[in-house]
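Morning. Coffee machine broken again, so started the prediction first thing and wrote up yesterday's gels while waiting. Chain of 438 residues, entered below exactly as on the submission form.
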Amino acid sequence: MAYLVGVLVLVLGVLVSIGLHELGHMIPAKRFGVRVSQYMIGFGPTLWSRTKGETEYGVKAIPLGGYVRLIGMYPPADAVGDPPVRGFFGRLAQQAREASGEEILPGQDHRAFYRLSTPKRLVVMLGGPVMNLVIAVVLLGIVMVGFGTPDSSTTLSAVNQCVIPASDTSGRDCTADDTPAPAAAAGLQPGDTVVEFAGQDISSWDQLSGLIRASGDEAVPIVVERDGQRVSTTVTPVVADRPVYDDDQPVLAADGTAVTKPVGFLGISPGTVLVRQSVTEVPGVVGEATWQTAKVVATLPARIGDVAQSTFGSGQRDETSVLGPVGVGRLAGEVASTQADGYGMSERIASMLSLLASLNIALFVFNLIPLVPLDGGHIAGALWEGGKRQVARVRGLPRPGPFDAARLQPLALAVFAVLAGVGVLLMYADLVNPVTLG
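Came back before lunch.
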């Protein structure tokens, strides 16, 4: 049941995000006088609609996007110099111009989108992606300030029974030949909270970990809190080779193996606690998440190729693989139904909000790709037109006509076909070769 609730919450959150994205386009367009004939969430057959004023508002059957119909997206042929109609692509452009012109009501050519100045067109087209970024900022703000971000705590989540070499990544159980772990030998238990180590009060896991690694193999006193009582004992760490970390990431050698060094080792693992952050931390986190998402989008063709190879070949799908709607829904279900210790309702809500924030950041970045029919394609067209006009003004030349955006119609159809194909591939991959939290 929790799994289904997680999926439904995600779907609702995505629909709200789509609706707000389209509002980001519609509100400034109406403010600038453009006639908006439709505001739709979804594609395909209309499930419900209602007309208010001059705009039809509705919901369609396929919740994989949305749109607002801005009248006069393409300038008519006479406004762009009556270009000759040649070949298949020329006919596509001409049909786009004619269809756009038919939507303009008599006497309302001044309300056509193509009539807007470059700054106003940029505001309209950037309104949608910027709305997604605002949603992400709000959601991450709620998570970081209201719930907190996961951090290692001094309460133990696990106590190892033996010392397994760092080079052994098989995940095997302990054997009689393995050295007993000092923490288990000293009687430490999962759920214990370390309050003192080597005579020092402990306030964080980083502090405790540093003291343990620096202790060598000397016997040291340790005090834990267990069931409300303080329990004192002595532990003797062993010296073991353990990975070297830099900014929480393992340092790798030239051959790709983890760099290790001999340090004190007890065999304990920290629990996780939510630590509330300052609101001033939110912009930095959003900026870093946006940058990481942009790097993923920049390498999207290669990542899609990896998905295809792992799905139709024998390779294992990487946990950082690109996900489609099915995969994201599966992830939301797993987040909502996870039964791990210390993973309560607060953690579930925070994780779900973080997932929705990540999706909105992805929508922000993806929509800025300078290809039609994405918002970035229209933004690029507006910048091109504005740039030409500024050059003409500086050189004292006549003002150029509007950019013939209809000529990009063949490109828009090609991009749409590619996106549809990628969507089908990801949906299939998410079904037969899914990425899971486990």
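Residues 2-31 form the longest helix (30 residues). Going to sketch it on the whiteboard this afternoon.
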